[in-house]
Amino acid sequence: MPFALKTTPNMVLEVLPQHQKLNRLIDEIEQQKRLLAAWQQAKDKIHAYSQKALMPAYRELYSTLYEQMKTLWNGLSSYSFTKSNTALVEDKIQTLARLLQGSHLLSQKQLDEVEKMHVYYQQADEYSKKKNKKKNIDTFDEPETETVQADDVFEDWNNDQYQQAREQAKLKRQQEKQAQAEKMVNQSLKTVYLKIASIIHPDREPDEAKKEEKTELLQCANEAYEQEDLFFLLKLQLEVEQSKNGSNKGLSTEQFKFYQQALEAQSQSLKQQMQELINSLVWSNKAKIAVQKSKGQLNIEQLYKQIDADVSNMKHQLKAEKQRLSFMGKESGLGMLLEHGVL
């Protein structure tokens, strides 16, 4: 904020255990605010750095994968394959089409080709399913192996459903917690602001010097309220209340509970802002894992290192995909990829 709270020398909160707890929360929030400000300042630079370092490699990789898809499609009509190898090649084409579909790294002409490929295989899959369904209706005795495979598929599906349910429940809890924190912050903002205004009230101050000082404090409170800075308002309320009482006597149980809840809500809100900001700068699975392991403590230098590591990995992958593409262009090379299971 463009203004700072001028705390008085006698504003000491270390006397009682409850004050120590509030002090820890205040210190934590001050650190969170500094960290968030640093990330906000670095955001554009990090984004520009990642765009410059990563996007050319990403664009070349997707172009290479597109060429793989086209080369394999042409190979189906140019080369002789066994039935099993034909199925493998078509599976690879479908996988590439799904990956490339809707990518902003391809030209519109390339995207149109990808969409045609995707629609073709989608229709082929639907036809195959209808054909198999009719075959199953006509068949009364199913082999035992098919039953086992069906059980395996169901078990895999069940596990996937369980994992998805867990992730959805976790996300719902986080959203509810964030909504509760935001509600608490919004309620507390108005409550604290009105309390400060009622204590200061410059119009009721007969002393001109004190009236001017209170007017400045109220102006600070107004700006903090407009900027939704609950943390500043809480610290200001502590100061004006202690100034009014003329002592450092302990807070009442009700006051302590309110301050604690309001500060915790502010801390939770700052954590969420930090997480959203970092997530907006994270693109790869490795970077996401690094963020999760850091538990919100990932620093700016670490993210730059992660970008460099991702660039290095991307270049290695690009080199491998280009080599794979060169083999796909020849019948013997494609046969070798199929033989070794590295298509």
From TrEMBL:
It comes from Acinetobacter indicus. It comes from the Bacteria. SUPFAM superfamilies: Chaperone J-domain. InterPro entries: J_dom_sf (IPR036869). Keywords: Chaperone. This is Molecular chaperone DnaJ.
